Model the fold of this input.
Amino acid sequence: MGESLLSVKDLDVEYGDVPAVRGVSLTLEPGQVLGIAGESGSGKTTVGLSLLRLLPRSASVGGEILFRGENVSEMSWGRLRAARWAGASVVFQGAMSALNPVRTIGDQIVEPIVLHERVPRAAARARAAELLESVGVPASRRSSYPHELSGGQRQRVMIAMALACKPDLVIADEPTTALDVIVQAQILALLADLVRSSRIGMIMISHDLSVLGAVCDRLAVMYEGQIVEERPAAELLAAPRHPYTKKLCAAFPRIGDQSSRLAPDRARPDAPPVLEARGVRVTFPARYGHGAARAVDDVSLEVAPGEILALIGESGCGKSTLCRSLVGLVKPGAGEIRYDGAPLKFTPRALKRHRRRVQLVLQDPAGSLNPRQTVFDAVAEGPRLHGLRDGLTQRVRDALSRAGLRPPERFLGRYPHELSGGQQQRVLIAGALALDPAVLVADEPVSSLDASVRGEILRLILDLRAQLSLAAVIVSHDLGLAWNIADRVAVMYLGRVVETGPVEDVLLRPRHPYTRSLVSVLEAPGERVPLSGEPPDPASIPAGCRFHPRCPRLAALAASDPAAAGAAGCAVRDVPVLLPLAAHLTACHLAEVS
Amino acid sequence: MKAFLSRRGGVAGLAVLLAMAVLALAAPLFIHPSDLSVVDATGAALAPPTPHYPLGTDQPGRSVLLLVIWGARPSLAIGVIATACTVAIGAVIGLLAGHFGGAASRVLMAVTDWFIALPQLPLAISLAAVLGQGDASITIAIAVTSWSTTARIVRAQTLAVEARPFVERAHALGAGHRQVMLRQVLPNVAPIILVSSTLTVAGAILSETTLQFLGLGNPTDVSWGAMLNQAVNQGAVTRGAWWYLLPPGVAILIVVLGFTLTGRAVEDVLNPRLGTR
Amino acid sequence: MTAVAVPARHAGRRTGTGVAEFFRYLARKLASAVLSFLVLLVVGFVIFSVMPSDPLEALTRGRPTSAAQLAFLRQQLGLNQPPVERFWSFAWNTLQGHLGYSWQFQAPVSSLIAQRLWPTLLLTGSAMIVSAIAGLWLGIRSGWRPGSLLDRTATGVSLTFWSVPTFWLGLILLVLFSVGFGPVPALFPAGGMSTAGTAGGLAPQHILDVLRHLVLPGLTLSLVIFAQYVTIMRSSVIDELGSPYLLTARAKGLRDADIRRRHVVPNALLPSVTVIFLQLGGLVTGAITVETVYSWPGLGYLTYQALQIPDLPLLEGTFVVFSGSVIVMNMLADIVYRYLDPRVRRQ
Done:
């Protein structure tokens, strides 16, 4: 067998009678990073947990797992406990729940050190402090509780904890899921660095090919419990062979790759905008410990009939709030929403009329359907509320078949839990179409769907645009989505649009340093423009240009030419508010300098 | 339904309850008013079980068995009626407080919390004492003191349902308060109300027997709590008359346990939280 | 119970702003307790002074009373005044400890209550300590392995005790162990708190005598609330079982016993503590019925005695004292909880 760090042969796992993993074989050498890709239910997490016998009792495991030459399934409990964490440790997903909420992070890092190395507590504490510093968390935070840290910091704590006993193998299960793209890039850089510098072997499990591509040497793609393709990462991503791998790769488009650009490039329609936001501001009142949050701070947008606008930004940038004010669910504190040029009045009657023409599609299709309503009732909900009772059945059928649920009869009587995620999202789109709207506002319409379903829903939105000349505002954190289907894009940062214009202009030639960082995350690791710091808090917006504390361009300029940096006034003068024009516009004092 | 049938405790509980209900409803068919009359009693005073009196007799010489069967009628009736009032008050307050935020909701919840924290029995005793002896005042006392738990549960569930995206979708489709509450929230809160009312009946019957035992019921009525009250007054304890003390208590235990088991089984079916681990 | 100390240990490390925040928290809780007490006074007033259509009739029910006596009472109770003024004088009197004059005992209600306070505290306190220790321990054990033999037994036993009327359980234990039944001799006294004619004070014989009298009522009360504690703790432990941080703890190589002690118990105790304090009302309910059955000379028995007449001023006094003490205990629980849960502490 040689001296592989880990070698898995013909691993089978069943829960009761349901097979979860079938015939999986893997090997891993020290200092190597192996990626396991796959969507939910593919068995990838089960493989990870079986390596340390962490599966629940109901699982039966077959095959052979050799860790440092020793068969894991034959280890005694004592031997196994010794191998756990000291030999192989785990970085779990969702550090908020994977850390004990009522114990300090210092305590939790110290715990395995004391357990496995039998060192005095003081020494273990000193080691914990070092570990925290090495992952970029100030050692002074060791007496903090998990809920007092940001999401990125918690994940760093998880990593520090995983390294506490100097293991030979680290299993990272979705280590960056639910983090913002830029924090995600920071964490991945940290992991890659640690692996290379200490010759740890690592298995990284994720649904996100761009995450895996950034750090892995080899990639294994799992589908329905089996490995369908395993090759060096770069090779596999550049030319996927298995049809499933191809679908998966399509969900993580490379910007500039024309084959993943589904929207035809077209001139901006001359028609006047159908839906507009003018100088919209939304402020949430102060609550315990938080100041008033300027969630949306003077934003103007517009979308013309048959046009798709992508609104991109990290969590907390105000994009979801803005999209709710477009539908009339949140009343702007200042500015106005216009439909066909007429300002929306926030009276019950006007709102009801508005909500017939502008439809909202939400992120989580399973949660957006009332579990006690059938498909028919869910789609008929809108027409009923608006008194469209004549020909209701026909209206529902038409909407379902336009949303691609054919034949509609097959779906009418079903309940949401009997449908797949993609079908649920189609039902929601049908529910919107049943009111013959002019605009669709979709908040992260594909982010909770599996990668292979993502393409279908995107094509559906494009078809509807072509057939019904439906306008759409797509809100997402994912620039790749904008590249896939949007005509124009607006990038938001901390309540303000910082760059806007046609997709090809903005994404291929980004001018704002923030857009540039976002775009670079999707590129090869070498090209990345890292961004330091945490996602900002809308309750404390910096003076001047709100991006300047994190701006790499300003930092570079200040290093080379401090006088010019000071003269640019980034810290003092606010940037101009962008108007919704077709042209490529940037809100940056230094945009012309570079 | 199938999931419920696979829970033995729940099935047993429901079966016992059905049997009790049938027995209570059919009691007038085989129990004559003279069987319950103190004056017309024919048995010996406080005598142990004999073939003719399978559970012995009480001080005036009535059959304890017949008394226990008859006692199911007021106990079940008061329990169920008090629960209906409790659940109606609690569900409406919980739903309103959960749906409409703001000051009014905070006041409602403060009142609810106040009633939850306060000891029930002193309040119920005081109410029943002021209202005078009788079934009506016991029912009112129970309803007034126990709606708050239901209100709290319903409010929590309403908040949880309102936070789910389908409620936002309904708003975005143009639904108003009434439509959201009746079409979206209520169907999702109803199962919780069902569970809570089953468990409330159990608590209501316990409270009812306690109040009867303390002498707040109608002195001439036959109910389980009142029987135990009379047993103590007639010296059953010092004379070791177990046949008089055991049956009413066992009857209460069986009914309360029946409701509790049924409620827990329904809860389990609706909200399976025990995983495979 | 040692696990409580784990999070509590960090409480001392609070910063200056933390102290200020703690006092703000304290002030908020104090204010809400004061408000609760005010509502209590209103409710008490409504029940005892507004609801009886003629409080005098309620007061003198069943007793022949002369017109002069009635007029005197009317004057004494201030029934000639408007309700709002009557409320304020009632509230003011209550706050000063003037709870009225008992009909039955011909003595001030407050002094009657003062005499009966200590026995009730002894009974409820000892029952609560015994059942909390036993109940939480059993709840942890049975929640840790749901479906095991221990769990099924514990659940069955606690469900049964929960469904038993407290007073009936008391009666049965009384017949069994005090009157004696079959082969069981009369082991414990039937009622009261001490044998008549023995010396009081702190004499060892007296203490032993009181303890002997305490066994049966204490056991009855403990069994009922013990059942509640088992159920609460068990379900909080089960709720924690699926938590991802337990997978982390297992992956760290911890032994099951350590996972339970260091990770599960501290988390599961928090919701349990809340519920246990919320159920203090249940303890009071139990005290009233148990004291009645065993003639234990406490507040609960006093309530029962008042009920027989009914002696409304005395009933009102016990109502205010029972409810007021629960309000105070709940406020203390909120403050303790803040020490236990870091998430609340730093909010």
Observations:
- The radius of gyration of chain A is 26 Å.
- The first helix of chain A runs from residue 44 to 50.
- Chain A has a mean pLDDT of 88.
- Chain A touches chain B at residues 15, 56-58, 327, 329, 348, 351-352, 355-356, 359-360, 362-364, 367-373, 381-382, 385-386, 428, 431, 435 (CB under 8 Å).
